[in-house]
Amino acid sequence: MSNEKTRDAEALPPHKTLTTYYDSDPERSAYVHDLFKRTAPHYNTIERIFGNGGLAYRRHSLRFNGLRPGMKVLDVAIGTAAVSRGAVKLVGPTGRVYGVDPNEGMLAEARKNFSGPLTRGVAQALPFKSNTFDFVTMGIALRHVSDLKATFSEYHRVLKPGGKVWLLEGHVAKSRIGHALTRFVWKTAIPGLTLLFTRDRDAKLLMDYYWDTVEQCVPEEEIVTAMASAGFEHARVRVTMPGAFCEYKGQKAA
Ligand SMILES: C[S@@+](CC[C@H](N)C(=O)[O-])C[C@H]1O[C@@H](n2cnc3c(N)ncnc32)[C@H](O)[C@@H]1O
Hints:
Elements: H1 3-9, H2 28-39, H3 43-49, H4 53-64, E1 72-76, H5 84-91, E2 96-101, H6 104-113, E3 118-120, E4 133-139, H7 148-158, E5 159-170, H8 176-198, H9 201-216, H10 220-229, E6 233-241, E7 245-251
Parallel strand pairs: 1-2, 1-4, 2-3, 4-5
Antiparallel strand pairs: 5-7, 6-7
Helix pairs in contact: 2-9, 4-5, 7-10, 8-9
The structure holds S-adenosylmethionine.
């Protein structure tokens, strides 16, 4: 069996097949690509519904987690540069932020807010040399990769010894009331507000898809185990805003 087949057999997809959106798992990445291509121009409008609070959140969290002046950062799934904009401020003129994303529509939107290097590529096969970055970031995109194991192994590979990974993800509260509340906010209120502000059905569909993938995502513990298996030390998850955000972190051995 070839290496590729062995890897596929052991792949860990971030969620089960969602037949409301596509018929089988091999169709998922094309579906996601097309959805983000169609909605890229609306992504910043969706951020503005939250008063751009998500941008401030990302910047503060990166500072809290050790992003410092002079560091070399890879922002995977850069999207419209919601993470990179904060990272650029934190690393200052002596540092450098690189953005990577498979979607040409998103890269075009990123270019409006970000002047650093942009590359087309996917998290599970990064087009960068080993031992290159001090920090790897990924903002609310882990559910879109084809294989969590391959993704974490790539993050580990491109980090320098001692380098850190920071992943922001959606969070679903576990208690019955918490789950119902999270569901109401993300399944009903936010897609409704998105339709109201953008007047675009695809933008609403993006938020519907967001909720379904967050709710169906593999358990947090499984993600942490996959990070540790890829070689990350101190792999852990921290719920930073119950019902909204959690963060996965780890470090490559120094
Ligand atoms: C919800 S946006 C996140 C943008 C930004 N990181 C943020 O924090 O808001 C998800 C991004 O993931 C990208 N994406 C989808 N599949 C991917 C993959 N396999 N590897 C890397 N990025 C991917 C999409 O093109 C899109 O730009």
